[in-house]
Amino acid sequence: MKHKFVLAIGIGLGIAFACAPYPKDVETNPAVKAQRFPKGSFDGVIKDNVEDMIDKGRQIFRFDTFGSEHFWGDKLKLHETIAGEKEGGIGPGLTPKQALQLGLKVDQGAVPATLLEVMKGGAVSLENPETTLELLRANAVVGVTGFFEKKRLRSIGIQCAFCHSTVDDSFARGIGRRLDGWPNRDLDVGAIVALAPNLKPMAELLKSDEATVRKVLKSWGPGKYDAELNQDGKAFRPDGKSAATVLPAAFGLAGVHLHTYTGWGSVTYWNAYVANTQMVGLGTFFDPRLKNETQFPIGAAAGFGDLRHAPDLVTEKLGALHFYQLAIPAPTPPKGFFNKDAANRGKDVFNGKAMCANCHVPPLFTEPGWPLHTPEEIGIDDFQANRSPEKRYRTTPLRGLFTRMKGGFYHDGRFATLDEVVKHYKTVLKFDLTEAEQSDLIEYLKSL
What is the DSSP secondary structure assignment for residue 255, as one 8-state letter? Predict the structure, then answer.
């Protein structure tokens, strides 16, 4: 009897399922069946991939030179100036103190404990070039890798972190824990490159001479770099000032379309552009816009619009690098940096009377989509815009503004303070603010 009852239930269920309104005629991808995982679900695969991409991307951002040592070391011989004559190079060598004065940073987490201890006690001189070599051997100089052979520095390469990381000064000024994504506004890139004993490769590219190239490099100043110089050869603005722009942040980019001040392309585009044409790594880069001989005479002649190297040391790393950069959040302003009550009032001014939110749309604080504007729209000259393919300016995301107080605002740092920025837009957009409202607005900007 029991057996018959169970059989009846089984038959009944079979009939019920057969009659159920399942969409049997709906097509489905056969690959789905092949991806039925014996353990967990596809969510687990995604989670593992996230962790793997973050780890790989961090390593690439901090330590990968993309083969750039063939240029900075093998061609420019920058490592010879760093090492000094006693260590097989030239001149007195670069001391840690001089390196720090140039804005280079030291990751205290990478410094061997014994060396860190003697540095703390003052037993190791920061006036000795040999200490610089020890820091390079430990891979502790942020954004710089030394290549050694039989204890001699034979070449040197750079990483993304060179310009887009700094440290928290927890050990001493210029020495501390890494702050990835922060623009190093202390770093004098031009002065560092100008130390190279052989600038002939740069001079030949720019169709100039080494003395002129060195003069241009030294004109940049701390926290600035010219990523278009080797495309158009325009070293100075019409007013005679350097054409270099302030280093942008590489944090808070999730959801942000364009990475540069003038809209060259997305974050991953700019990674490829910089790795191949600025760091002079060995990879693949394609942008037919750079074949425009009128706008980019230097880049077009150099073939920057279609670069191919074998082996390619860049392309396979772009995915993880992009992933890691998008994971870097904009930092929170330190306690006491802004007046909270004033910032709360300033938020209303930002979203309303001052019309800031029309372009700096919260919470991205740039436009979702295509955040580009003509020079006329933002009330400035068109020099830097015209150096880009789009000939426009990007709406810069505002998160983490406190990290960019040094060096000024806008692409070239033309406005020294936020107060100057607000006054500029009052004229351009023709809105009126009381002194109190303007003060509150600035406190809100500082809070972002």
Answer: T
Instruction: Quickly count helices (H) and strands (E) in the chain.
Output: 20, 12
> What tokens does 117 get?
């201890």
Q: Average pLDDT in the 201-225 region?
A: 98
Vertex 13: Cα angle to 7 and 19 (nearest 5):
140
Residue 34: predicted pLDDT: 61
| CA gap 428, 445 in Å, rounded | 19
Residue 264: band (very low, low, confident or very high) from pLDDT cuts 50, 70, 90: very high
Confidence of residue 119 (pLDDT cuts 50, 70, 90): confident
Two tokens at 69? 């040592």
Please answer whether residues 443 and 338 qualify as being in contact, where contact means their C-beta atoms are separated by less than 8 angstroms: yes
Mean pLDDT on 362-380: 97
CATH number given to 340-447: 1.10.760.10
**Token pair recorded at residue 307:** 């670069």
pLDDT for res 39: 63
Give yes or no for residue 223 having a pLDDT over 80.
yes
* CA dihedral for 227, 252, 323, 168, sign (positive or negative): positive
Cβ count within 10 A of residue 139: 15
- CB-based contacts of 438: which residues, under 8 Å, 6+ apart? 419, 422
| pTM of the predicted structure, to 2 decimals | 0.90
Instruction: Give me the phi and psi of 236, to 5 degrees please.
Output: -135, 150
Instruction: Give 278's contacts (C-beta < 8 A, 6+ positions apart).
Output: 227, 230
Which tokens go with 412? Answer: 């070239």
- What Å distances lie between residue 16 and 21, 25, 64, CA to CA? 10, 18, 61
pLDDT level of residue 15 (50, 70, 90 thresholds): very low
CA atoms 109, 115, 121, 127: torsion sign: negative
CB 286 within 8 A of CB 305: yes
Where in the chain are the domains?
65-222, 340-447
Residue 378 CB-density burial (10 A; 0-12 exposed, 13-18 middle, 19+ buried): middle
